[in-house]
Amino acid sequence: MRDDGAAGETSGTTERGSMRVYEAIVKGLEGIGVRAAFGGAGENAAGLMLALKHSRQIRPVITRHEQAASFMACGYAMYTNRLGFCFATAGPGAFNLFSGLAVAMSDSYPVLAVSGYATMKWQGWGSLNETSGVNGTPDSRAMFAATTKKSFLLTDIADTCDVLEEAVNIAFEGRPGPVHIHVPEDLTHRGAEVTNFRPIRLDVAPVPPDPARVEEIASVLADALTRRQRIVTLVGFGAVRSGAGPEIKRLIERFQIPLLTTLDGKGIVSEGHRLSVGVFADSGHSSAWKAFREADVVLCIGNSLNQHATFNYREDLFKNKLLIHVNISETEFRKAYRPDYTLLSDARPAVAALVDVLERKVGEVPAVEVDGRDYEARHITHLSGQIHPGELAQAIGRMLPPQGVLLADAGAHLAWLGYYVELEEGQNFRKAGSFGPMAGHVNGAIGVKVAHPERTVVVGCGDGCYSLSGFELMTAVEHGIPVIWVIFDDQEFKLIKLFQLTTYGETGLVEFQNPDFVSYARACGADGYLVETLDEFEHAFHAALASGRPTIIDARITRWAVPHYSPSPDGVIAGLVETVEARFRAR
Predict the structure, then answer these.
(1) 498 Rama sector, left if φ>0, alpha if ψ -120 to 50, beta otherwise
(2) Measuring CA to CA, which residue among 104, 77, 89, 17 is closest to residue 48?
(3) What is the pLDDT of residues 188-246, one digit of tens each?
(4) How big, in percent rounded to 5, are the helix, strand and coil portions of the chain?
(5) Which of 119, 163, 189, 560 has a 20 to 30 A CA-CA distance from 467?
(6) Residue 408 neighbours by CB distance under 10 Å
(7) How many whole angstroms separate alpha carbon 102 and alpha carbon 71?
(8) pLDDT one-digit tens code per residue, 38-67
(9) CA pair distance 345, 101, nearest whole angstrom
(10) Where do the DSSP E strands lie in 391-545?
């Protein structure tokens, strides 16, 4: 996991026999390749801010709100093998990190959070920002333990390097996730120094497949191929994060296996590939549902079989199907579905090993006939003169540059983007994840761009999402981070409105007024465009790509469009029938 050459670079901290606690933490993080820090200002974090100021390797980004910092750390780790790093002061600042750490936990991002902690000798006295859990104070140790793989309280300054080393290794082990360190105020006082600094060792054991299990599963697949059974592979974000695209492509082409993806697996192989049949999800493609429905064997690679990819954990989803599950975390095999065969492994070595063994067992495989995206006519019906969100999504996908990253926040726009955008290899798409916060990607995109300055980063977000935390636009301007935010503007919480209608037969409190996003963007020093037609959008998007500046595009979309959705893998009509039948049974 260590970046080549990172440990040998010169630290920006003072080269002496001893250093302050935050200087030691920064120097340790420099050595394992951390190149960005996202955090909020505060008295208990003041020493860390100064240590970062003097670092010649880590780029500090002070955010307007610590929650945004935690989301940015997730974005930084999203498509890298580097640690996302965020920090906050004690008390309320630290508590603002929880949402981002929950995202890192649910979506498998290696993230380290460092937060202040009130003076230990005053514990239980109710001092400013105290969170010891003693005498009626909030208990941050319990809260961070509940939202991370492990949380540490640094009580002895001599343990600084040991605790930091253990924390960062835990972040990367197995299924990646967040870790946290409390640094008490006592340890930052003058005279408190780390006298035993040493470089941090990032030594995470890989998770290779068991050759015996590979042989067993390859035999099962070879037998299915010989008997002309229908196999599909369902690929998720774990395969993207593992960099398994070339291995997945080799698997499907050599053995003529149709490829289905989750929303986060989009682009693992070009979505225009003959064997790529679409997104398998409740807002996915009919072609993918058809291929899945007809399959005898389902090979799941790097996905968690979560709610929207399983039609709300549908009990009969794998009925009369053989399920083979490849995942880096054994806990994924014990959730809603119990696989017939499991392979505990990182996705890339697992697929490579399976292909190598299958090569010896299987001869030439004839080309299979698949119903690709032409299987469904994705016709867009215009019910108003405003932009249809499906056409807006198509335009974004069409204009997204090679290697571009498209992030979708929680909301109806996610369904439009996942359904209508077609990615090429090298492009990436990420939804809000299982924890699913609104505005997580509005801010997380800044972290993605810091990690990948050479890639175009675009956020598709609802107006509700953007309004939650769009003030970090000032952070992007201040630090010269050119993200493009496309706001799907219909002045309502669309998904909540649809849920109210289908569940209660009425709506309420879902409409709101928006500010002038363009004037706001310009007031912050960014570029802003109001677009009401597709031509205007394309012009604005081209300008945003060319400018290299943070840009907001306020796209006025129709309220009359409903996202493509089915609660059944048998398709929209079957889903509607099931919904009606369920209502009659409920009566």
Answers:
(1) alpha
(2) 89
(3) 999 999 999 999 999 999 999 999 999 999 999 999 999 999 999 999 999 999 999 99
(4) 40, 15, 40
(5) 560
(6) 27
(7) 10
(8) 999 999 999 999 999 999 999 999 999 999
(9) 24
(10) 405-408, 428-430, 457-462, 484-489, 527-531
Tell me the pTM: 0.94
Check: CB of residue 109 under 8 Å from CB of residue 78: yes
Output the six-digit token pair for 55.
């670092």
Structure tokens at 414: 């996610």
**C-beta separation of 435 from 458 below 8 A:** no
> Within a 10 A sphere around the Cβ of 505, how many other Cβ atoms?
7
Question: Which residues sit opposite 61 in a β-bridge?
Answer: 38
Q: Are 141 and 151 in contact (CB under 8 A)?
A: yes
Q: What are the CB-based long-range contacts (under 8 Å, 24+) for 308-312? A: 308/263, 308/281, 308/282, 308/283, 309/234, 309/236, 309/262, 309/263, 309/280, 309/281, 310/336, 310/337, 311/282, 311/566, 311/567, 311/568, 311/569, 312/282, 312/567
Separation CA 431–CA 365 (nearest Å): 35
Of 449, 400, 454, nearest to 424 (Cα)?
400
Tell me if 328 sits within 8 A of 347, measured CB to CB: yes
